[in-house]
Write a structure and sequence with these properties.
The chain is of the alpha+beta class and 264 residues long. It is built from three helices and 13 strands, in the order E-H-E-E-E-H-E-E-E-E-E-E-E-E-E-H. The strands form four sheets. It has a six-stranded antiparallel sheet with strand order 1-5-6-7-8-4, covered by helices on one side. A hairpin with a 2-residue loop joins strand 7 and strand 8. The termini are far apart.
Length: 264
């Protein structure tokens, strides 16, 4: 259950200035993914990675500012944004920076006051901010959600606990161009088949025809789904990767796939 709060209830709430520890600096984003692309693809990939790193540094800087202002006994070593994480395994996979930090608000601060202060700080920094109340795990949370340049920050507070939860993430970006699916050479052809017959299911390919030997297929609900034909084994479920079938082992149904042959 989510309820939107009027802006008038969250602007400039009663929160003491500098209630947390003083501003601290820490290393920024520095992990580098290596790519096998070349030429124009390399330039494009490098530019996308630089943009993702820039968004990661911007996100961390804003989260550090919120954490040091809204909580006490800050330990920024727990705010890790050192390398991007896989956001989804589409083709190509997309990466983002994401982090979560939990601290405690000062003894004299309330949950609503903390949310008001967070909303004020974020709006001052030109973030688009909404505030709502959400029930989760038996508690009523005041949730501040902010967006800027594709980044998202969420600040959660509750009267039932002094904890303040900070969650942040950048948009998910593909760091390399899509890789074309190369059709493999057939394992067997009519010219190379041993006593038996080229598999009617995969035409001698040996790989699963349902997923082209990848083990997964695109899905409407999520980027990738387990192949329903091979179950991620990647080989043809009929010939088990051999590319051919022994004539002596063919069933009546399988024989129907070879009408050119005289079975009598």
């Amino acid at each position: 259950m989510v309820s939107e709060l009027p802006v008038s209830q969250v602007e400039g709430g009663p929160y003491p200035e500098g209630a947390g520890t003083s501003q601290q600096t820490s290393p920024g984003v520095g992990f580098v993914l290596r790519s096998r692309t070349r030429g124009a693809d390399m330039d494009k990939t490098s530019g996308i990675r630089e943009e993702l790193d820039r968004l990661g540094r911007s996100l961390r800087g804003q989260m550090v500012g919120l954490i040091t202002d809204l909580t006490v006994r800050v330990h920024l070593c727990r705010l890790s944004l050192d390398e991007p994480k896989v956001a989804d395994r589409s083709d190509p996979p997309r990466h983002h920076y994401a982090a979560e930090y939990q601290g405690n608000r000062p003894a004299g601060a309330t949950a609503v006051g903390t949310a008001s202060r967070a909303a004020f700080l974020l709006r001052t920094a030109a973030w688009d901010v909404t505030v709502s109340r959400e029930h989760d795990d038996g508690r009523l949370w005041t949730v501040v959600v902010a967006h800027r340049d594709g980044n998202e920050i969420r600040v959660l507070t509750s009267d039932d606990t002094p904890a303040v939860v900070f969650r942040g993430r950048t948009p998910a970006l593909a760091l390399c161009p899509p890789q074309p699916v190369e059709e493999p050479e057939p394992v067997r052809t009519p010219a190379t088949v041993t006593p038996g017959y080229v598999c009617y299911e995969c035409d001698g390919l040996g790989r699963c025809p349902g997923c082209a030997g990848r083990g997964w297929v695109p899905s409407r609900k999520r980027p990738r789904s387990r192949c329903g034909e091979c179950g991620t084994t990647m080989v043809c479920p009929i010939c088990r990767g051999g590319g051919e079938l022994a004539a002596s082992g063919l069933s009546e149904y399988q024989r129907s796939h070879y009408p050119e042959l005289d079975w009598h």
